[in-house]
Amino acid sequence: MFQKKECVAMLLAGGQGSRLYALTQKTAKPSVAFGGKYRIIDFPLSNCINSGIDTVGVLTQYQPLRLNEYIGNGLPWDLDRTFGGVMILPPYQGQGGADWYKGTANAIWQNMEFINRYSPEYVIILSGDHIYKMDYAKMLAYHKQKEATCTIAVFEVPLEEASRFGIMSAHEDGTIYKFSEKPKNPDSTKASMGIYIFNREALECYLEADSRDESSSNDFGKNIIPTMLASGERMVAYPFEGYWKDVGTIDSLWEANMDLLGESPTLSLLDEGWRIFSRQVIAGPQYIGKDAVVENSSLTAGCEILGTVRNSVLGADITVEEGAVIEDSVIMSHTHIGKGARVLYSILDESVTVGAGATVGKARGEGAKITVLGADVVIPEGKTVPAGAMISDFDKEGGQTK
Amino acid sequence: MTAAGLIFSNIHDRSIPEMTQRRTMASIPFGCRYRMIDFPLSNMVHSDITTVGVITHYNYQSLLDHIGTGKDWDLARRSGGIKILPPYVTAYENSAAGKLYENRLEALMGSVNFINRVSADYLVLSDCDVLLNIDLRAVIDDHIASGAYMTLVTKHLSPADYQFDQRVNVVGIGADNRITEVAKFKPQDDAVDICTNIIVIKRTDLQTLIGDAMAHGYKDFYHDIIGKNLEKRNIRAYRYEGWYAYVSSLESYFAISMQLLDSEVRKNLFSADGRNIYTKTRNSAPTHYSQNANVVNSLVADGCVIEGTVENSILFRGVHVGRGTVVKNCILLQDTYVGANADLHCVITDKNVVIKDERRLSGHATMPFFIGKGQSV
User: Fold this and answer.
1) Residue that is last in its domain, among B243, B274, B305
2) pLDDT score for B329
3) Which one of A55, A275, B109, B129 has the fewest beta carbons within 10 angstroms of its own beta carbon?
């Protein structure tokens, strides 16, 4: 039986996400919860299926358990297929020995066999740390129309922030003539989104050469892209307009969650035309109690709200007892907030318990910092967690800050 | 010991004609996100019953759509799983076997192929008008230990509990929980033991019963099979003590739905002893409560947008409540859209109903105002 796919997606999901501290102690960044009932990886996976790409390799390395369990057979994203579908690709032992993924490029190189099974013309490289809705089919059409070897999606950023990104300098027609990783004096505001489409043959050729280069750090941004550019390959920038947010830091993760709120949210998940799929938690309906107040918030199945919830995003199966107040916070699933407790300007990971009368964080305001509680943390009754603290379950005994 | 399940999806359709015009009793939406069949199905799955036949009669399109492959109940199995049993009609319209079944016994006769072919030792029969979260393993174990020929799950109801009931069968229970009589319910009765229509029987015994019934032209399962065998056979009651309700009319549907606002009822029905009720997942977004939302004592599913006031109400998935609108004591089914400044009191809207701005609609708890599927007010 011979079947092929025009385009195969490779999703880099091995990153530790060390800037998310307590949230990534036990899991890789792509499986961090977002928006109540999603995980970050739901966005690239849903984008794939909505763009007609039904073959996705997910490259895992750091703490893959939660991610493997979450993706399972891919059914929630309609990626449970006889030919294709989603497949987890961990590092493996081969004839020549066993290797961890040394860099993003090396991870793809070690899985060329997976890509070649489908004989695709194109390979799209995605990362698992951005929240965005994007039609990759349009990008692929652009890639074909421009007859490029490599197309890089770019996003306009303010000039003052440009030095945080990989910056592409491109001509009017989109052709890239210069790439600079985190430049001190940026001459363009086109930031790379870490989304690349390659012609498969060229990709294999450059990855092969890169694998033989001992001095290379085997990274797309640092090695492959500059090498291709230097070799005179036709590389174009694909301008993306729409919502896109790197949620690699505590502040940006909090902001992206808050973008779901308000009268006309910056990021809407109610769009039937571009649905974001996720694996559902099995829980009953939400119950809002007799004395409860819920304002400008987003709630999910299984929530039992008897207290007050304002300007917050709550996941599934969260109990907020009488008199408790949640404000300006992101609370992931399976969490219990005791009577009279206060959670202010905080991010709480999954399965946290906040005891009755405890206070977590400080009201949002001038100079305020986000407080973070990692998964399974228990805050004893009446205890106060100071603003800006980062507590993971490894130091829950003393509840010290990190 | 293995058991298979058999669910009757249509038997009580006539109890609630408003909602069964285009669907079966089994597919009536209930409790924000469920359908009636989710309860017997989940009860079976949690009791290790993973081969389940669903007997259908008519209007079962919505049921097929709901069940799909059975995956959401963990019943998409290589061996066993869920089997839809469509009505069996022969080419001979006028022969006895050539018409659609009309009662429980004929429905069973139409399902003999399934009953003959499953490998299970026992069968558990259930209807779709019942709301309860029961451990069926305990019932089967009790059935085996007592050496009974047939076990019926019964529930003791006081007059306050059976105000809506007309059609149920009442049983008399004697020593050692043996059933001594079966009768139609009469309103003047005091506290009664009613039959939930959940029945456990050895598969081979049911095969024999169906064969006899066919040969003798029996019509009524309770009268002809149970009633006539009470002296000869040990037919036992399993007294179920947990929370239980059954839907027998639109008024009872309304009253039972409102009971869900009590957290004890929710715990007993949706997650008794950690047994969650499964349902088809829809992948809705979270529910959005706006700055002006004022929601009190209500159950809300995912995917709603609430900009107005909601009190003592049940909102299904994808319901929209506009700004300035007041919804009190209402049940709004999936994708109901209520515009701005409307006022609803004791209203039940079926799926995809549109209520335009500034509409004022009111029913009463004893006679809720019902708006049919897809209608616009």
Assistant:
1) B274
2) 97
3) A275
